[in-house]
Amino acid sequence: MKMRAVLVLAMATLLSACGLNSVPTAQEAAKAKWADVQTNYQRRADLIPNLVATAKGAAGSEAKILTDITNARASASQIKLSGDDLTDPAKVSAFNQAQNGVSLTLQRLQEAYPDLKSQANFATLMSQLEGTENRIAISIRDYNAAVQDYNTLIRTFPSAIGAKIFHGAKPMVPFEAKAGADVAPTVNFGNGS
Question: What's residue 193's pLDDT?
């Protein structure tokens, strides 16, 4: 009876030392880290188009205001009123309408000025892009570290015994960047720059 208890205790010690629990724990940790990599890639895929659209929209509305001002100024400068024309109500009215057009567009600019945000939106876009790329890099680093821990565990004694016998463990593949991954993605605002 005493011998049986010692044998059971010895077997339990050997089983616990052979990675019975540590192998699946390490494997699940690596899988969780891979999920983080996928989450950050999905965040980038979802975030970038929305940020670009926001920046483009703000820049587009601001460009329209500036175009309107330029057009109104050009229109006003084309209408000349000399001293001899001051007796012609139509010419005076046309001149006043052109000048009022400039005043109205300048007034719209003044009203919109607090909301002009293209520079802030572009700064936000750049900051979010940098933050997203950093998140991806960190999650890839964490995944590769978890894979290294798992692969080391299933290949070293005594865990290698339990890894093969009980789990049929195979090494996991670390993340490797594809060729050309060192080149940052291009962000195009469709304005030729």
Answer: 47
Q: Where are the domains of the chain?
A: 20-165
Give 120-127's long-range contacts (Cβ < 8 A, gap of 24+): 121/51, 121/54, 121/55, 121/58, 121/59, 122/55, 122/59, 124/51, 124/55, 125/51, 125/52, 125/54, 125/55, 125/187
Q: Tell me: the pLDDT tens digits for 71-107?
A: 777 776 677 767 777 777 887 777 777 777 766 766 6
pTM of the model: 0.55
Tokens of 111: 């009203």
Please identify which residue in the block is written with the tokens 């006043």.
Answer: 96
pLDDT in tens, 17-40: 555 678 888 888 989 888 888 888
